[in-house]
Each structure stands twice: as C-alpha cells, then as structure tokens.
Amino acid sequence: QVQLVESGGGLVQPGGSLRLSCAASGSIFSFNAMAWYRQAPGKQRELVASILHGDSTGYADDVKGRFTISRDNAKNTLYLQMNSLKPEDTAVYYCHALNLNNNERAWGQGTQVTVSS
Fold first, then answer.
1. What angle is formed at CA 61 by the lines to CA 39 and CA 57, rounded to 5 degrees?
2. What gap in Å lies between CA 79 and CA 8, rounded to an integer?
3. What angle do CA 36, 100, 49 make, to 5 degrees?
4. Which of 28, 44, 75, 86 is the most buried (most CB within 10 A)?
C-alpha cells in the first residue's frame, strides 16, 4: 500500500502563496488520477484540483486561475501551487491517489493551510 505524506502547509497572509507537496512511498505511475481535496471546519471534504495521466487537469470553480496542480512521476510527488490565497481557502488539504484500473486508492494525513492577517 502506497503511503502519501503532505507538506508545505502553514500560515499565510491573504494574497500570499504556498506550495503543497505530496510525497508517495512508492511509485505513483500506476495511479491514473491524483487530486487535492480540502476540508474546512464544519464543512464536507471537497475536491480542489485533479490531474490525470496525460496531464489533463481540473479545478473547482473558486480556485481556477489561482491554483495549479502538477505531478512528477520521477519524484513520486504531487504538487499544488496556491497563489492569491484568500481566508476562505483555510482548510486541511489532503492528497488522494486512485488507480482507475483496480480501484486502489490512498489518502494522505492532511496539511493545514491557514490564510489570515
């Protein structure tokens, strides 16, 4: 079972940037779809951004133009570049990996992002 570990979260002022990383303990090549989710206090976990093999990406409407998802298969790492951060982006951010062929999936433990002045 692949283990996923997120890093890069923290406290940032509105308008600032953060880059989240999700490092896998093994190869991520078999995971057709990888994604970032987030969960704010009192809210359900929601999809933020996804990336498929072939680098097809998708974003939630409220992060389009501000966030960029990418993956480096050679480094077994998923990234989320977050720019122009807003207080409403405050949440725990989770990495997710899914193998569409056998339904194998994995979650990271989450990393806290707090946007506040």
1. 90
2. 10
3. 20
4. 28
Cβ(4)–Cβ(95) below 8 Å: yes
Q: Greatest CA separation found in the chain?
A: 45
Query: Tens digits of per-residue pLDDT, 49-75?
Result: 999 977 899 999 999 999 999 999 899
Q: Are 92 and 38 in contact (CB under 8 A)?
A: yes
Determine the Cα–Cα distance for residues 1 and 81; give it in Å rounded to an integer: 26
Name the nearest CA neighbour of 95 among 72, 112, 78.
78
Structure tokens given for 28:
């991520």
pLDDT tens-digit map of 2-34 = 899 999 999 999 999 999 999 998 888 888 899
